[in-house]
């Protein structure tokens, strides 16, 4: 081999190695497809899964460890009375359509979210806002009606992202945000594509493009990952296959926590679930561990209230609803249902719901309750269950962070109306002292556990299967998000 040929070969090898290390695209699979692309107007977690931090940003944001950090607001001042927040915005922030993001957009977004006709799924996040004032293009002042110790936390939710007035008409199909990635294309039923925003105001992401594929069937999910058709599957829906991936050097398996309290929700305003004895009977008929083992193959943490076990303020109340079918039958007889009753069990698509529903229906049958299963797609579930409240029972994982406040809203889909609980939450929202907040959170958890509002099943785990060279994916999900802003490939 001549010296020139050796040099050429070495150059080719270097070029090949460079090309091999230069991957800047990613294909991520998730199980659920968003019904629309407006995080400020839809309740489905799949919207945030795709768009949170990637396309849309708020004044503050969640990090992978659940901490709240600066977002579009680079800093803020809080008045001594805790009522006035003055946000200083980052300079040079533009929406993906090239228009500037400024204080007027912040005012528009917050006023729209709290308006009487707002369709925001978490309107309660904005309930304490009394006024939003533009001080100058990069300064906005938010005045609260009462102190709210969770306000900066609330502003990090996907429901609180900043949107532009001119984009609202088409936001559900053409989302325009300020994030590191811009929306490119959505082939409904198949995939959604993002491209890097080269005009991004913050740190540029390593990825140039990203494709989200929607694969709902667990068998198809296994096949897609095994064939390396996708680079990662976040929320892998077939936990029984995880050991096989763990043993394969091509893959890495991450199993983290979510904020997803998985519950057997009951319609508290629909007979017979308006009777606490019936709700208690349902709760005692449930064998949580059998559901975790049978539906989730052991992945999940039992809960006895609507609160994440990894949170320092979690109270273990599982004993209130420990599996006791004999006592469940006694309670049903006491409530006037000695022969049981028939009700509906409407299930959304996730495997925890479909698989868990079959197990729960069998457990309820043992105490005389017939749960007639109807499998719904997400759009149907949102219409029938969430909006129309046309259901007896359902199973859903509530993935929003620190969402105890939903129990203070009587019009929320499970329709729980308790003025004592509402008073506790009002006091919690107005309290900034950490010790007092912990005390109030414990009280709130206890009330809903002892009132058997819903059947509390388990905290949803989030298993992710990814190719070995992929870095920066979130392990835990402090909010429902597949944040790609820090994701890269190893060289």
Question: How would you summarize the topology of this molecule?
Answer:
Blueprint: H1 3-20, E1 25-30, H2 45-51, E2 60-62, E3 68-70, E4 73-78, E5 84-89, H3 103-114, E6 129-136, E7 139-144, H4 151-154, E8 181-187, E9 191-196, E10 209-214, H5 218-226, E11 232-234, H6 242-246, E12 251-266, H7 276-285, H8 288-296, E13 301-302, H9 325-334, E14 341-347, H10 351-365, E15 369-375, H11 378-387, E16 393-398, H12 419-429, H13 434-450, E17 455-467, E18 470-471, E19 488-489
Parallel strand pairs: 1-10, 1-11, 14-15, 14-16
Antiparallel strand pairs: 2-3, 4-5, 5-7, 6-7, 8-9, 9-10, 11-17, 12-16, 12-17, 13-17, 18-19
Concise structural overview:
With 491 residues, the protein is of the alpha+beta class.
Characteristic key phrases:
alpha+beta, Dipeptide-binding Protein, domain 3, eleven-stranded mixed sheet, four-stranded antiparallel sheet, 23% strand, disordered N terminus
């Amino acid at each position: 081999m001549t010296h020139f040929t050796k040099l050429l070969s070495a150059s080719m090898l270097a070029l090949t190695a460079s090309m091999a290390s230069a991957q800047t695209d990613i294909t991520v699979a998730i199980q659920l497809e968003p019904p629309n692309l407006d995080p400020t107007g839809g309740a489905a977690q799949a919207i945030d899964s795709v768009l949170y931090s990637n396309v849309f940003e708020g004044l503050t944001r969640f990090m992978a460890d659940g901490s709240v950090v600066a977002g579009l607001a680079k800093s803020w001042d809080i008045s001594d009375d805790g009522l006035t927040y003055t946000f200083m915005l980052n300079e040079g922030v533009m929406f993906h359509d090239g228009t500037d993001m400024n204080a007027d957009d912040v005012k528009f977004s917050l006023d729209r979210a709290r308006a009487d006709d707002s369709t925001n799924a978490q309107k309660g996040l904005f309930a304490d806002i009394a006024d939003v004032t533009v001080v100058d293009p990069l300064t906005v002042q938010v005045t609260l009606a009462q102190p709210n110790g969770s306000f900066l936390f609330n502003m990090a939710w996907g429901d609180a992202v900043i949107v532009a007035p001119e984009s609202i008409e088409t936001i559900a199909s053409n989302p325009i945000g300020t994030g590191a990635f811009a929306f490119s294309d959505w082939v409904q039923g198949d995939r959604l594509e993002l491209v890097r925003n080269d005009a991004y105001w913050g740190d540029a992401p390593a990825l140039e493009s990203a494709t989200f594929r929607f694969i709902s069937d667990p068998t198809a999910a296994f096949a897609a990952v095994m064939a390396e058709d996708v680079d990662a599957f976040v929320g892998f829906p077939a936990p029984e296959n995880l050991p096989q991936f763990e043993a394969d050097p091509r893959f890495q398996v991450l199993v983290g926590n979510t904020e997803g309290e998985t519950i057997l929700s009951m319609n508290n305003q629909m007979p017979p679930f308006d009777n606490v004895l019936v709700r208690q009977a349902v709760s005692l008929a449930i064998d949580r561990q059998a559901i975790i083992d049978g539906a989730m193959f052991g992945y999940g943490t039992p809960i006895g209230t609507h609160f994440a076990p990894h949170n320092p303020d979690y109270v273990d109340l599982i004993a209130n609803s420990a599996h006791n079918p004999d006592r469940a039958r006694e309670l049903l007889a006491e409530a006037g249902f000695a022969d049981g009753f028939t009700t509906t069990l409407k299930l959304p698509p996730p495997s925890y719901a479909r698989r868990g529903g079959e197990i729960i229906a069998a457990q309820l049958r043992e105490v005389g309750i017939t749960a007639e299963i109807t499998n719904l797609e997400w759009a149907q579930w949102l219409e029938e269950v969430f909006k129309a409240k046309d259901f007896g029972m359902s199973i859903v994982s509530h993935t929003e962070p620190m969402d105890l406040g939903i129990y203070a809203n009587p019009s929320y889909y499970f329709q729980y109306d308790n003025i004592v609980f509402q008073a506790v939450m009002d006091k919690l929202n107005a309290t900034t002292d950490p010790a007092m907040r912990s005390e109030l959170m414990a009280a709130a958890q206890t009330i809903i556990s002892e009132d058997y509002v819903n059947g509390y099943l388990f905290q949803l785990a989030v298993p992710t299967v990814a190719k070995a060279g992929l870095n920066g994916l979130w392990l835990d999900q402090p909010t429902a998000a597949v944040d790609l802003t820090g994701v890269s490939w190893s060289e």
